[in-house]
Design goal:
Blueprint lengths: L10 E7 L5 H12 L4 E3 L9 E7 L6 H7 L12 E3 L8 E4 L6 H7 L5 E5 L8 E2 L2 E2 H6 L9 E5 L9 H12 L5 H20 L27 H14 L4 H10 L3 H6 L5 E2 L4 E4 L2 E3 L2 E3 L7 E4 L2 H13 L19 H16 L8 H12 L4 H8 L4 H8 L5 H10 L21
Antiparallel strand pairs: 1-3, 2-3, 4-5, 6-9, 7-8, 10-11, 11-14, 12-13
Length: 430
C-alpha cells in the first residue's frame, strides 16, 4: 500500500486570487505550495476576476457546503457602456457597439430593479457547473446547453468610484469604431451631465469626466464632396462591377441619407405615391436605434428616384426585416464589410481618391447648393435642426456668395448714378 507523503494541514487560507487563473488552478497551486494532503475552495471566481477566494485545507473542507450556503458575497465590478462581447465579459470579442448612453433618469430607474430577490439566468460563459464542468469551458468548446433560471438576492448596490482612466479608455475604444470626434465629444458631454447629477444626488463626490480633454474636431473644409463628373463615373463603375451595391450608392447620392439610415430603411417607409422617404431609424455599429437627431423626417424624392426604387423593390433580396438594402441573407448590412468589399474598390476603379461614405451626403448637399436650391429646402432634406446648421456646414462650398453680395450692394436702388452735390445736402434740423 502506498503511503501518503503529503502533510495533514487543517484550516483556511484567504487568497487574493490574481487575474488569469481559475479557482481550481488556485487550489492546485496552493496544495503544491503547502504540500497539503487535501484542500478545496468555496465560491468561484472567473479567470479574469480578482479577489477573495477562501481555500479550505484538511478537515476544514467539511465546512465548505455550510460556508457556500450561508455566506454573503460582495463584488466590485467595472461597468463599461457602448460595447457587447460574445462572452459578455472582457475576454470576448466585441460583436456590437452602441452610441446609446443611458440618461440619468434611466440609470436611477434601473438600479433599484437589481436590489432584492430577482430571477436570473446566468450567461453561458459563467462559472456555473453543468454536469460537473464549468459553463464557460463548455461554451468555449462550442457545446450547446441550457442554464436554468434561478433566484438570487442582492442586498445593496452602490456606485463606489468612477476613475478618469475608465472614461479615457471608453473614449479611446469609441475612436476605433469610426465615429466622428464631434460625436464622441457629445457622448463625453452627456456622460459628464450624468455624473453631475450623481454629485447633486450625493452618490459620488467628483466628476471624472472633467479631467478628460475633448478630442480635436476636424474642420468641415476637410469634407470631400464629389463633383458631378466624379459622381457619374462612380455610379457607372459600380453598376458595371458591383451591381448589388449600386442601388444603395444610387439612393445615397440622390437623397443624402446617412449610412445608418440607409441600412435601417424599410419598404414601409417609402411612399411611392407622394414621392418621399420617411427616415425614422438608424442601424449603426450593430445596433438599431433612432436617427442622429432623434427625430423623424420626410425626404422628398424625384420621379426618377421613385421609379428606380419601384424597380429595385422587385429585384432586391428577400428580407424578413423588410429592408430596402439587406445583405445576401436578408439581414442588416455590415458597414466594414461594405466599405472593404464594395465602396473602396469602386472608388479605386473610378480613379477617385479614398473618401468617406459620409461624403456622399455632402455630395448630395453640394449638388443642391450648386443648383441654387433654397437653403430651407436643403436643411429639411438633410434633417438639420435649423437653417444655420446647414449654412455653417456648407458655407465654404459657396465661394461665389461674397462676390454676389458685393454685386447686389451696387444695385440696391433704381437711382444708381445719382451723386450728392453740396448744394443739395440737407442736414437734420436745418
Amino acid at each position: 500500500m502506498k503511503r501518503n507523503k503529503h502533510k495533514n494541514i487543517n484550516g483556511w487560507l484567504i487568497l487574493n486570487k490574481p487575474q488569469g487563473i481559475t479557482s481550481n488552478d488556485a487550489v492546485v497551486i496552493t496544495r503544491k505550495l503547502f504540500d497539503a494532503n487535501k484542500n478545496g475552495h468555496t465560491g468561484t471566481l472567473d479567470p479574469f476576476a480578482t479577489g477573495v477566494l477562501p481555500i479550505a485545507f484538511g478537515e476544514a473542507t467539511k465546512l465548505i457546503p455550510f460556508v457556500e450556503n450561508n455566506a454573503e458575497k460582495e463584488y466590485e465590478f467595472v461597468l463599461k457602456f457602448g460595447a457587447q462581447t460574445d462572452t459578455l465579459d472582457t475576454e470576448g470579442t466585441i460583436v456590437a457597439t452602441s452610441d446609446k448612453i443611458p440618461t440619468k433618469e434611466e440609470i436611477l430607474r434601473v438600479i433599484p430593479e437589481f436590489i432584492g430577490k430577482i430571477k436570473q439566468i446566468p450567461p453561458i460563459y459563467s462559472a456555473i457547473k453543468i454536469d460537473g464542468k464549468r459553463a464557460y469551458e463548455l461554451a468555449r468548446e462550442g457545446k450547446h446547453f441550457d442554464i436554468k433560471e434561478r433566484e438570487i438576492e442582492i442586498y445593496d448596490l452602490k456606485l463606489l468610484e468612477i476613475r478618469p482612466l475608465h472614461i479615457q479608455n471608453f473614449i479611446k475604444d469609441m475612436t476605433k469604431t469610426g465615429l466622428a470626434n464631434s460625436t464622441i465629444n457629445h457622448f463625453k458631454k452627456t456622460i459628464g451631465a450624468v455624473f453631475n447629477y450623481m454629485i447633486d444626488s450625493g452618490v459620488i463626490y467628483q466628476n471624472p469626466v472633467n479631467r478628460i480633454k475633448c478630442l480635436k474636431v476636424k474642420n468641415n473644409t476637410l469634407m470631400r464632396p464629389l463633383t458631378i463628373k466624379e459622381t457619374n463615373k462612380l455610379l457607372a463603375v459600380t453598376k458595371k462591377h458591383y451591381p448589388d451595391f449600386y442601388p444603395l450608392l444610387y439612393i445615397a447620392v440622390n437623397t443624402g441619407l446617412r449610412e445608418g439610415e440607409l441600412f435601417a430603411l424599410t419598404w414601409d417607409c417609402v411612399n411611392f405615391v407622394e414621392g418621399y422617404i420617411v427616415v425614422n431609424k438608424s442601424y449603426t455599429h450593430g445596433v438599431l436605434g433612432s436617427t442622429k437627431t432623434g427625430k423623424e423626417r420626410k425626404v422628398k424624392i424625384s420621379l426618377t428616384v421613385t421609379k428606380f426604387l419601384k424597380e429595385w423593390k422587385m429585384a432586391c433580396p428577400k428580407s424578413e426585416l423588410n429592408l430596402v438594402f439587406p445583405n445576401a441573407n436578408g439581414n442588416y448590412m455590415d458597414s466594414q464589410n461594405m466599405m472593404k468589399r464594395r465602396f473602396k474598390p469602386a472608388l479605386a476603379l473610378a480613379g477617385i481618391d479614398s473618401i468617406r461614405f459620409h461624403d456622399l451626403r455632402h455630395t448630395y448637399a453640394s449638388t443642391l447648393i450648386i443648383q441654387q436650391v433654397p437653403l430651407p429646402y436643403i436643411s429639411k432634406q438633410l434633417g438639420h435642426s435649423t437653417n444655420k446648421v446647414t449654412l455653417d456646414t456648407y458655407v465654404h462650398l459657396m465661394p461665389e456668395s461674397a462676390q454676389l453680395g458685393d454685386s447686389l450692394l451696387e444695385n440696391l436702388y433704381e437711382d444708381r448714378g445719382a451723386g450728392l452735390e453740396e448744394s443739395n445736402v440737407r442736414r437734420f434740423g436745418t
